[in-house]
Amino acid sequence: MTIWNLGSINADMIYAVPHLPGPGESLAATGMERFLGGKGANMSVAAARAGAQVAHIGAVGPDGRWAQDRLTEYGVDTRHIDGVEVPTGHAIIAVDAQGENNIILFPGSNHAISQDQLGQALSSAQQGGLLVMQNETNLQVEAAKMGRDLGLTVCYAAAPFQADAVQAVLPYLDFLILNEIEAEQLRQATGQSVTDLEVEHVIVTLGSKGARYYHRGTASDFPAYKVKAVDTTGAGDTFTGYVLAGMDRGMPMAQAVSQANRAAALMVTRHGTADVIPDLKEVREARFD
């Protein structure tokens, strides 16, 4: 089947810094690189590199044709990416010597996707496919409703986290993925823990500790592989893309999560975002201590 991704497309401007800047601090970067990024683009590339057929629904500005071409190069169907007059989204990312980061996002064209564009794209979707969204575009609720009506498995990566955005799509979800901080923020906002949610599949990522998968409230833990992290940017998106590809290919969820953990472990050993996401061959051949 096809994974349909209503997803952001960004230029990721990554700055190497000796430490993450504090309030009011001016800090000289020791390096700068530009990568294809955005949570949506990262997930599309990860799922494609994991062997899935991926169709990306999004938008770029006049300055973003390079990003669309890069997605095509990585095996993503880009026929449903529109060119708009709003500048392409971008992110300013600071990465410290320990691989931790902070990120400033400019949404730009990611919030200029039209309802007609969405409808035309999903008119090609077949029942049994997957639809994934993140909180970096407009039309999330409209897409979730449409996906449910079309018989798609509706998936949501709850980042950047906003409780009202998650609550708006919850009634339509089959799969929710969020990190442990976001899970606690959702509990505080709704009074519900992840085990209370009426969502069949929930994954809470735990950073260096791995991931916890809930199937109708029953939890299973999947420990992370031990590696030396140099850059955590995009690791969560890589994990999500690999999980979705595993689901699409009919893998048992335990196998899909374990493979996604391997991909995320490789990802944190690399500097960059979509351009350095490992492919399936690398993930399968990787050796961890």
From TrEMBL:
One of its GO terms (biological process) is D-ribose catabolic process. It catalyses: D-ribose + ATP = D-ribose 5-phosphate + ADP + H(+). It comes from the Bacteria. The active site is at 237 (proton acceptor). Pathway: Carbohydrate metabolism; D-ribose degradation; D-ribose 5-phosphate from beta-D-ribopyranose: step 2/2. It is found in: Cytoplasm. Activated by a monovalent cation that binds near, but not in, the active site. The most likely occupant of the site in vivo is potassium. Ion binding induces a conformational change that may alter substrate affinity. Coiled coil: none annotated. Its main location: cytoplasm. It holds the Pfam family PfkB. CDD domains: ribokinase (cd01174). Its cofactor is Mg(2+). Requires a divalent cation, most likely magnesium in vivo, as an electrophilic catalyst to aid phosphoryl group transfer. It is the chelate of the metal and the nucleotide that is the actual substrate. K(+) binds at residues 231, 233, 267, 270, 272. ATP binds at residues 179, 205-210, 236-237, 261. Residues 6-278 form the Carbohydrate kinase PfkB domain. Catalyzes the phosphorylation of ribose at O-5 in a reaction requiring ATP and magnesium. The resulting D-ribose-5-phosphate can then be used either for sythesis of nucleotides, histidine, and tryptophan, or as a component of the pentose phosphate pathway. Homodimer. Belongs to the carbohydrate kinase PfkB family. Ribokinase subfamily. This is Ribokinase. It comes from Ruegeria denitrificans. The gene is rbsK.
